[in-house]
Amino acid sequence: MARLTALNPDNVSGKTKELFNAIQGKLGVVPNMMRTMGNSPALLSGYLNLSGALGGGSLGAKVGELIALAVAESNSCDYCLSAHTYIGANLVKIDAGTIAAAREGNAGDPKTQAILTFAKALVSKQGHVSNEDINSAKAAGLTEGEIGEVIGHVGLNILTNYFNHTAETTIDFPVVTANATIA
């Protein structure tokens, strides 16, 4: 059972209503995580702004989803695994094998592999990456700007993972669980 309330979009006003209307217009629905974040318009606005900014970055939507899957698996966030599996498959058109590999931090091409390896290192080392981690990312072709974007994506996904763990957000996507065997 959810520990924080997912607000009904029909019963909100002010900044929360404005944000929910924008989300509804873009996605066609206001997912439970965002409905719950709506209890703090500042949090929801910050999440949407960072997500939007990173979505327009150089890494692209596909890589952003792959990072989200790797981070969600690392943090055992079933809500985010469910959401990003759905988004990855249905909106970004990532195949099931690529989704499964990303959850484990694996990718089919060297640059994406370096991105996921660096993202997983950020999570496991709580941001205290080594010179070797940075140098490996650069050697694989990541620019300093791309390294910065990976850090941004990881930070954004840690925010949502921790939020959903705390809120025990009700999953409103086809359920995917951490460390589950993927068919």
Automatic annotation (TrEMBL):
It holds the Pfam family CMD. Residues 41-120 form the Carboxymuconolactone decarboxylase-like domain. InterPro entries: AhpD-like (IPR029032), AhpD_core (IPR004675), CMD-like (IPR003779). PANTHER family: CMD DOMAIN-CONTAINING PROTEIN, SI:CH211-175M2.5. This is Carboxymuconolactone decarboxylase family protein.
